[in-house]
Amino acid sequence: MTLSAEARAEGMMRLVFALRSKGITDQRLLDAFEKTPREFFLDRAFQDRAFEDIPLPIACGQTISQPSVVGLMTHALSVTPRCKVLEVGAGSGYQSAILARLARRVYAIERHRPLARQARARMEALALSTVSIVSGDGARGWPDQAPFDRILVTAAAEDPPSLLLDQLRVGGIMVLPVGQSDEIQQLLRIVKTEHGLDYQELGPVRFVPLLPDVAKDEGD
Ligand code: SAH
Predict the structure, then answer these.
(1) What domains sit in the chain, N to C, each tagged with a CATH number?
(2) Cα of 5 from ligand 1 centre, angstroms
(3) What is the pLDDT of residue 219?
(4) Is 88 in the pocket of ligand 1 (CB under 6 A)?
(5) Which of 126, 133, 210, 217 to probe ligand 1 with, by most ligand atoms within 8 A of CB?
(6) With 0-12 CB in 10 A as exposed, 13-18 as middle and 19+ as buried, what is 6?
(7) What pLDDT is recorded for position 217?
(8) CB-ligand 1 contact for 118 (6 Å cutoff)
């Protein structure tokens, strides 16, 4: 089933309303959501639920985040048009596409090869040429492209990965969920200063775990 233009417009209005009611009022960010068709990042079976403010299943047993959580995290990242951003856990590519509307350049890493491939194809189809997506272990970062102005991790680690903190520029910001994978985690905003790291807790979230190495997928 493909969505009609009216269903899409109506769905997008509902989504923006849901985002606003959760306190996401930054117009640049809301514009980024409006320009990014969430249904395009979902399998057919879930496309009619694309505009609901809920997480949904994607391939490889993973999930596309809840839009208001994408909004909250992106807002906390304080992305400006000059930023070079690293995303760890590209998944469907939805968050990468939102970041692409706000930043100069986006590098994203996904440990499931089929997801990385699919997300890359979506960036191409949407002509988002400032996003690069590779498969790999994102906890190691992307040393060739470091340092980054912003780092967003969309899978939960027990502690902020030190290699990622190393690849954050002084003055840079990292947002990530921290905590045990089977529990509610705490969303952290870390600012790297000349004197060290400033931590701020932003509230409880629930993400899939940050796992080591590239995943072994069937048919890979
Ligand atoms: N940002 C995604 C949501 C991703 S869910 C979206 O917008 O759709 C978290 C993703 O992190 C999953 O796809 C999972 O496979 C990936 N992941 C977990 N550990 C990882 C690691 N070490 N490196 C890269 N990706 C990882």
Answers:
(1) 66-205 (3.40.50.150)
(2) 30
(3) 65
(4) yes
(5) 210
(6) exposed
(7) 86
(8) no
pLDDT value at residue 218: 72
Q: What is the pLDDT of residue 183?
A: 83
Residues of the chain with pLDDT under 50: none
Sequence-distant contacts of 66-72: CB under 8 A, at least 24 apart: 67/15, 67/18, 67/19, 67/33, 67/38, 68/18, 68/19, 68/22, 68/24, 69/205, 70/94, 70/95, 70/98, 71/19, 71/22, 71/24, 71/29, 71/33, 72/22, 72/23, 72/24, 72/187, 72/202
Q: Output the CA 4–ligand 1 centroid distance in Å.
A: 30
Give the pTM.
Answer: 0.97
